[in-house]
Automatic annotation (TrEMBL), chain A:
Source domain of life: Bacteria
Domain ABC transmembrane type-1: 100-296
InterPro entries registered for this protein in UniProt: MetI-like, MetI-like_sf
Protein's name in the database: ABC transporter permease
Membrane topology per record: Multi-pass membrane protein
Primary location recorded for the protein, binned into one broad class: membrane
Keyword Membrane assigned: yes
GO biological process, one term: transmembrane transport
GO CC entries: plasma membrane
């Protein structure tokens, strides 16, 4: 549990922030020294390289042909001949294509489902003084402190027959109480005058939620959707626990099999790898890229929202 | 037309009817939580049973009292695992915790907005990667066939595989956590830094405090409550190490170094079928965690911080 809550009112622009927007430093601050500036720049570059370097190597190796990989003695740092054959092999049907589709499906369905349930619940609890909202909030928050434990959850999920069902990768972790509380904090912050005037004009709760509250909370809805989507996309443990049928494996399971357990993929692609027509290294790297591309593409769009609006809220009682 | 009566003046029935749409909206979430959080909470009763997975299930298995707990507490393996979990936790705590703070201070001192936004965007990125991906990235960099081993071999050095070294495992886990989440941890501290009144800096500067003294006397005190809060939360989840991360590497490193409470529960329960014993271990973990939060919070109060919940 991280202790980050999105502040409903948004963070005030502090004087310090206003200063850097103009690019000037306050008069009382000393001129930075050349060495200091240089060291700071160097450490920033080093930090970024630590993150991006490995990703670069993975990307370049996935795009390299067999000869380049052999010459480099394994992983490729400087690109030679670029080829897409690893991706073509992965995406032309077979286990990896199916796993990618499973992952996309679970992510889309799961995120829509989680968001629908979470938004409704958050809005239902956002009205101060509404019937039973305190006990219901308690009901939610108790689950943040007392987890049920792995074994009882496992027994339940298998007991109700979800084994080998796609729902076993969605339902057990469909709701994050933390996310609901964040949404609720935002909804509560929506101007009560707006809601009041809509009610006078005859709008019901559903209409108020969809035409007033939701459009005003677009930023937080985007952030929470990303959190849920990333959760579903990254999920490996539920699949490992509940899915035995390898046709239903999500991409993370395949990634683990190929790279960590060094298993040769079944089917035509596996033959191409074991006969040496296709570099197994570039195949592994291509699967890694497939697993990271969706989140790497999505997160920058949402980033501007969580960069400005995050504040400590801890656990509200 | 009558004026609406104040909320306190209407009956429960009237309030229920008034808010029935809102209640209906919370219903799906409540049902989900009841089924997937509360029913399993009751399912912990398995810890007191001789659980029979094939016939009777949770409702029909015979009760055996505290037999499973006795087995648990008399089992040397359990205590070894517990110690191992705590060792990994404290390694992570000591080596991980200062890094986001330092990163936040560094970023906060960058005045150029665009540079800062770029760096933030880059260091946030790994937080969104799955553990499978993070572990495979490390495998490709530090593993026996990885980039560093490959470069060393080309220069005529011997073998090198940090991924399977049991002695190095706790540091490997810490490195992975830092790579994945240190950038993300920065957000909280940056928000706290943005809320510092800049007049404090100005006043300190007027009083002759240099850059470092301002950091010591203005910036760090501003971060203190946040640091205390995060430490309390962290200690409370001491036994909740990143389960997927460790389970993924359990086979490579061996259960000797890589077994933590969560993987032990998974192994004894799901894999070997000793459900009662594993559930007892799970209950131990839950109780221990709550006690740790209370304890850490107490310490935070003694140090004059607010912690998770305020002093009564």
């Amino acid at each position: 549990m991280t202790a980050v809550l999105v502040d409903p009112q948004g963070v005030r622009e502090t004087p310090l922030q206003r200063i850097d927007r103009t690019g000037r430093r306050p008069v009382w601050e000393e001129e930075p020294t050349r060495i200091g500036q240089g060291l700071k720049g160097l450490s920033l570059v080093a930090i970024c390289l630590l993150v991006l370097g490995p990703l670069w190597v993975v990307l370049v190796t996935s795009l390299s042909d067999k000869k380049t990989i052999t010459e480099a003695g394994g992983l490729v740092v400087w690109p030679g001949t670029i080829t897409f054959e690893a991706y073509e092999a992965l995406l032309s049907g077979g286990a990896v294509t199916r796993a990618a589709l499973v992952s996309v499906g679970i992510t889309v369905v799961g995120t829509l489902f989680s968001m629908a349930v979470s938004v409704l619940c958050a809005y239902g609890l956002s009205r101060p003084g509404s019937f039973a909202h305190r006990p219901l909030l308690m009901l939610l928050m108790v689950t943040m402190f007392f987890g049920a434990g792995l074994i009882p959850t496992y027994l339940l999920v298998t007991g109700i027959g979800l084994q080998d069902s796609y729902w076993s990768m969605i339902l057990p972790s469909a709701l994050s109480v933390f996310n609901i509380l964040v949404l609720r904090a935002f909804f509560t912050g929506t101007a009560p005058e707006l809601i009041e005037s809509a009610r006078i004009d005859g709008a019901g709760e559903w209409r108020i939620l969809f035409t007033i509250v939701m459009p005003l909370s677009r930023a937080v809805v985007a952030v929470i959707s990303l959190f849920y989507a990333v959760g579903y996309w990254s999920q490996w443990f539920n699949a490992m626990l509940y899915i035995q049928d390898s046709d239903k494996y999500p991409l993370q399971m395949i990634l683990r099999q190929l790279v960590l357990q060094h298993q040769v993929p079944p089917g035509a692609m596996g033959q191409a790898v074991s006969s040496g027509a296709l570099s197994s290294l570039s195949v592994q790297m291509a699967v890694m890229i497939l697993a990271l591309v969706p989140v790497a593409v999505m997160s920058p769009f949402v980033q501007k929202h969580f960069q400005k609006g995050m504040l400590i809220g801890a656990v509200k009682g | 037309m009558r004026a609406p009566r104040p909320a306190g003046g209407i009956t429960r029935r009237q309030r229920f009817l008034r808010d029935r749409t809102l209640l209906l909206m919370t219903l799906p979430a409540v049902v989900l939580l009841l089924v997937f959080s509360y029913v399993p909470l009751l399912g912990n009763v398995v810890a007191f049973q001789e659980y029979d997975p094939y016939g009777a299930g949770v409702t029909g298995s015979p009760f055996v009292g505290t037999y499973n707990f006795e087995r648990l507490f008399l089992d040397n393996r359990f205590w070894e695992v517990l110690v191992n979990t705590l060792v990994i936790f404290f390694t992570q705590l000591v080596l991980f915790f200062p890094i986001p703070v330092a990163l936040a201070l560094l970023l906060n001192s960058v005045l150029n907005d665009r540079v800062r936004a770029w760096v933030q965007g880059i260091i946030y990125l790994p937080h969104f990667f799955s553990w499978v991906l993070v572990v495979t990235v490390f495998q490709q960099m530090l593993g026996g066939a990885g980039l560093i081993a490959q470069q060393l071999r080309e220069r005529g050095f011997g073998g090198f595989d940090l991924m399977t070294d049991p002695g190095f495992f706790k540091f490997l886990l810490t490195a992975q956590s830092v790579w994945k989440d240190a950038g993300w941890g920065v957000i909280v501290f940056l928000a706290a830094l943005a809320a510092v009144n800049s007049e404090l800096y100005e006043a300190a500067a007027v009083d002759g405090a240099g850059r470092w003294r301002r950091m010591w006397h203005v910036t760090l005190p501003a971060l203190r409550p946040v640091i205390a809060l995060l430490l309390v939360l962290r200690v409370g989840s001491a036994l909740n190490l990143d389960f997927e991360q460790i389970l993924l590497q359990r086979d490579q490193v061996g259960a000797g170094a890589a077994e933590v409470l969560d993987t032990y529960i998974w192994w004894t329960g799901v894999r070997t079928g000793d459900f009662g014993y594993a559930t007892a271990a799970g209950i131990f973990k839950g109780v221990f965690s709550v006690l740790m939060v209370l304890l850490a919070n107490k310490v935070a109060h003694l140090l004059g911080e607010q912690g998770v919940y305020a002093k009564q």
